[in-house]
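Review form for a predicted model. The reviewer records the input and the model, then writes brief findings.
Reviewer: anonymous (R2)
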Amino acid sequence: MATRKLHGINIAYFGFQNKINEKVGSPTPDTKIFLGEDGSIDFNLKCSVNFGNVFQKLLEEDNWYLYLTVLSEESALEEQIYLDQIYGPIPNEIGTVTFGAGFPVHIDGKLIKRNNIRSLDVELAITTKTDKDQDFNSAVKDGCFFKTIIPIWSGN
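Model under review:
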């Protein structure tokens, strides 16, 4: 797992659970992604982010968003492709130190199979931009503070 410091932001918790395990009530997070019967991927990602004093001041002054971006990693493709991107606002109340978030992720099985995707590049980013802003893509890329690779278990 790779991380970098960005305005006093660090990851406090990162975990995910495949929906199939969630349905049977498994209490522990998973370590790899399982494919559904149709080859699709369905999991819930949970994370907590700690904010230092510097970033707490920035929260008070502007609207900030936490982005989850899921890209292909190990695959038959020459370049990565975006598989999913979800975002939500970060509360800007004074004194916010830790922020927890959950993201439901669904990726169509046809996309996984067609491109022989065997692992996912999962990234978390913080920015004041939304997809309505012109420099949105570069802002999310520049705001990335956490990145990890999650393998897809194929059962073969």
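Findings: The chain has a mean pLDDT of 87.
Further findings: The beta strands are 2-3, 9-18, 33-34, 41-51, 64-72, 82-90, 98-107, 119-127, 144-153.
Recommendation: see findings above.
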